[in-house]
Amino acid sequence: MSGGPTASEWAWIALGCNLGHRGRALNCLRAGLLAAGIRIEGASTEILTLPVGVLAQGDFHNQVLLARSPEPWPAERWLEVCLGAEVGCGRRPTYRWGPRRADADLILLGRHGEVMSAGSPAVPHPGLPERPFWHRLIAEIDGAVAASLAAR
Question: What is the residue range of 57's domain?
């Protein structure tokens, strides 16, 4: 997005896992994000969803967080924090859409999802349209943000 903000102290992060004790994994991911210096300003309920892409695997335990950093961070820094939380909770390399012990995805940047980037990472998350449950979980935290996504 040319001329717009390139960093934000706000981010929307989707947590998920389908290996091991799934509830414990989400707790670990939240703790890892907090240890990196962010605050969790909002949290959806935790739900079970069917896998996306590769269907022959267990259901995923998911949650969406509205997170806030101590200062505006670019998308790359937010992704770094998410990846650090994943590794700290036991994530190991696998294949695309494969099983996950811990997954933390940067799905939106900005309090209202207004910061966009076509770079790496791309925000909004390219998988957002294929995951209607993310929209539902975002709506639990802020209905106006979810409505703006539906209008895009």
Answer: 9-151
